[in-house]
# Entry
Amino acid sequence: MRLTFGHSLFARCGDCGASVACATWHEHICDREQLVEHQLNGLEDEIDAYLGSPRGRFELWWATRERRCAD
# Structure
């Protein structure tokens, strides 16, 4: 998946986050390490957003309560 902005000479790969020259886009192969790093960053963002939501705050509260009750 290619994400371009205006008439840029480069595009960001939606899979690995790499900046790739549009002229060589068809030759791009995602670097495995960069792909995993990009996916982990996205996962961290999703977790942070969830834990900041009302449901996530409740889950944190409940887990803390359950841990205290188990001791």
